[in-house]
Amino acid sequence: WKPCFSKVLYRQRNLVERFFSKLKHFRRIATRYDKLAENFLAMVQLASIRLWLRAYESRA
Predict the structure, then answer these.
(1) What's the whole-model pTM score?
(2) pLDDT at residue 24, as a whole number
(3) Is the pLDDT of residue 60 over 90?
């Protein structure tokens, strides 16, 4: 019996895990400061946009 292993899926998983690691560097997200899920989701979206812009800026 050989376990299934896909290099493509493993790379994608690595990207997702690194993204969440970077996201947790934002104190407000790491501590779940917001009480309402709606506000927390909005902060996650803003932090994600900031990370994306930073990555895009370094490539340009």
Answers:
(1) 0.72
(2) 92
(3) no
- The CA distances from residue 36 to 16, 22, 39, 43, in Å, are 25, 22, 5, 11
2 vs 27, residue with greater confidence: 27
Q: Which two tokens stand for residue 14?
A: 């690595």
- For the chain, first and last CA: distance in Å? 47
- Annotate 3-58 with DSSP letters as a single string: ----HHHHHHHHHHHHHHHHHTTSHHHHTT--SSHHHHHHHHHHHHHHHHHHHHHH
In angstroms, the CA 42 to CA 32 distance is: 12
Contacts of 40 (CB under 8 A, 6+ apart): 29, 32, 34
**49 contacts 25 by C-beta, under 8 angstroms:** no
